[in-house]
Amino acid sequence: MSFNALFCRNWQEAQTERIEEMNDETRKQIALTRFKLISPVLAEPRRAQNAYFREQAKEEHHFPHYGPRIIKLSTFKSWLRGYRREGFDALMPKPRNDSGRPRRLSDLEMGAIRGKCKAYPHLTVQKLYENLLQDNQLGTPPICYNTLLRIVHRENLLPEVGRTDVRKRYETPSFGELWVCDFMHGPKVEVGTHLAKSILCAVIDDHTRMIVGHAFAAEETVSALITVLKEAFLTYGLPKRLYVDNGPAFSSELLLSACAQSRIALVHSKPYDSPSRGKIERFFRTVRDRFLSGLSKEVTLDEINEAFSLWLKEDYHHKVHGGIDEKPIDRYHRSLKDVEMKRLTSAELDEVFLMRHERVVGNDATISFKGKIYEVPAAYIRQRIEIRHPVDDREALCLFENGARIAKLKPVDLNENARTFRPDTARSEVRFARSEITQ
C-alpha cells in the first residue's frame, strides 16, 4: 500500500470517534470551533484564503470530542464552501455509525521514534513517518500520521521553526471592512455607593478611524462587550471583519455564536501581540492625553460616559487625524458613498446577542434568576432548562428548547396565585344506615 493511500486510510480511521454518541451541544461546539478557524478569511479573496488555510494545515487544532487534530487544506475549503452554501448548520458534524479506536505504541516502538528524532533532528514529521513506516516501527496496524505528529509535538522531539512573519503597515480600503475592538482601564468612578475602576470598551473602524462603539463599564465582561457591539451594529451596520485579542470576553462562546449568525469574520490577534492592534492602542493613548487628563476626579459612571460621548462629537471626530491627514468624520461620510452596509433590526440583534443560562426547575415549577423567582410551565418540573435574555434587559427571560423559543417567563405573583388556587377536595359520602361519614 502506498504512503498516500495509507495516510488517507489512517486519517479516516482517526476521524471515526464514536460520533453517534454526540449530543446536540457537542456538535454545536465542534461547529463553532470550525467557524473560528475559517472565520478570519470569510471576506478575503481566494488567494488569501488558500494561503491562510495552508498555514493552518501545518498546525494542530483542538476540537471538542475529537481532541488535537491536524486539518487538511481540502477540509478547510469544504467547511468554507458548506458554510457559504448552507450557513452555520453545515459546520455541524453529521451522525455516523462507524467507530474507531486509538492505538498505542509499545516501549520499543516509542524508543525507535525518539532515537530517530535524536539522530536526524532536521527531518520533517512526514519524512519521519515514511522512514518509520518503511522500517515497520509504527505498530501493527501502523499508527496514523496525526498520532505521530501529536507524539512529536507533545514530547518536543523535533525543533520548532520560529516566527518568520514580517509586520507591515496596512489600511483597509473602505468603511466597514475591518473593526478593531479592545478594552482600556480607566480611572476610578462612583458606581452606586462605592468606587470602582472604569473600563472603556471601544470599537474603531480601520479605514476612517471613527469610533463606532464605546462605553465605560465597571467590569471587563462579555456583557459590557456585547452592549457596545450591539449599539455599534444598530447604528453603523455590520462590518465584514471584527479584530480582537484573546481575552475572556473576546473568546466567549456568545461572541463567536453571534458573529457566526451575523456572518462576520471574527479574527483574533496572536497572544501578547498588542502592536497588531496599533490603531485602537493609539486611540487609547489619545483618550488618556486629551480626555482623561481634563476629567474631574469625582465623577459617576454615567457622567464619564456622557462626557466621553460629547468629547468624541466635538473633539476627536472633528480634528485632523495624523494617520489619515483628515478628519475621521469627513472620511466616514465620503466612504459611505461607495459602501452599502448590511444592517439588522433591533429585534434581530436582540435575537443574535441573547445571553444564555441554564437552571433546574423546582417542584413548584419555578426558577431563581438574579434574585427573582420566575414561573415555568409545569411540564418542565425537575428538568434542566435553557433560558435566554437580551444583554441589556435581564428581566425579559424566555424559555428555549432545542434552539426554539417556547415561552416568555414572568416573575411569580404570589397574590395572583393565591386567588386562583383551588385545592382538590375529596367527596364525602353519608351512610345513614350506619350513622357514619366516609371520605
Write up what this structure looks like:
With 439 residues, the protein is α+β, with helices and mostly antiparallel strands. Among the domains are: 17-91; 179-336, 2-Layer Sandwich (Nucleotidyltransferase, domain 5); 353-420, Beta Barrel (OB fold (Dihydrolipoamide Acetyltransferase, E2P)), CATH 2.40.50. It contains 14 helices and 15 strands. A hairpin with a 4-residue loop joins strand 14 and strand 15 (436-438). Helix 2 (24-38) packs across helix 4. The longest helix has 15 residues, at 24-38. It is globular, with a radius of gyration of 29 Å. Mean pLDDT is 84; it is low at 11-21 and 97-102.
Task: Fill in the keyword field for this structure.
globular; five-stranded mixed sheet; 15 strands; 14 helices; Nucleotidyltransferase, domain 5; 439 residues; four-stranded antiparallel sheet; 37% helix; OB fold (Dihydrolipoamide Acetyltransferase, E2P); alpha+beta
CATH level 4 superfamily of the domain at 179-336:
Ribonuclease H-like superfamily/Ribonuclease H
Structural class: alpha+beta
Number of helices: 14
* Residues in helices, as a percent range: 25-40%
Instruction: Give the uncertain stretches in residue-range form.
Output: 11-21, 97-102
Task: Count the beta strands.
Answer: 15
Main beta sheet, described? 5 strands, mixed
Amino-to-carboxy terminus distance = 84 Å
What is the CA-based Rg, rounded? 29 Å
- Strand order of the biggest β-sheet: 5-4-3-6-7
What does the average pLDDT come to?
A: 84
